[in-house]
Design brief:
The chain is mostly beta strands and 128 residues long. The protein has one helix spanning 105-110, and strands at 3-7, 10-12, 18-25, 33-39, 46-51, 58-60, 68-73, 78-83, 92-99, 117-118, 122-126. A hairpin with a 6-residue loop joins β4 and β5 (46-51). It is globular. The chain starts with a strand and ends with a strand.
């Protein structure tokens, strides 16, 4: 059974940092396109950052470029989202996702076409 479990969310002041983790079980991460998404109240889900399974290319939403970094540790079957210089507008529920059928970051993060496995979400709140 495929399962994703996020951790690392919380309350942080503007300018602070958090690292989200997504631990996968029931499958091997190597051949999956993975990503992080977020949804703020009253807003549509947004693809934040993704890594392609085919060529390792990465995608970052314009709003997080230069501040967020996605990484993966296949040996631990885990991927991460390092979030620095956090802003109040980063406040949202963050979800991780993995998809075997999708191979590009365009389809995963931009078009949001994944029907793969999703985590339960972790709340990130940026507030003073």
């Amino acid at each position: 059974q495929l399962q994703l479990v996020e951790s690392g969310g919380g309350l942080v002041q503007p300018g602070g940092s958090l690292r989200l983790s997504c631990a996968a079980s029931g499958f091997t991460l190597d051949y999956y396109t993975i990503g992080w998404f977020r949804q703020a109240p009253g807003k549509e889900r947004e693809g934040v950052s993704c890594i392609s399974s085919s060529d390792g290319s990465t995608y970052y939403a314009d709003s997080v470029k230069g501040r967020f970094t996605i990484s993966r540790d296949n040996a631990k079957n885990t991927w991460y989202l390092q979030m620095n210089s956090l802003k109040p507008e980063d406040t949202a529920v963050y979800y991780c996702a993995a998809d075997f059928l999708i191979t590009t970051v365009q389809a995963m993060c931009v078009s949001d076409r994944s029907t793969g496995s999703w985590g339960q979400g972790t709340q990130v709140t940026v507030s003073s």
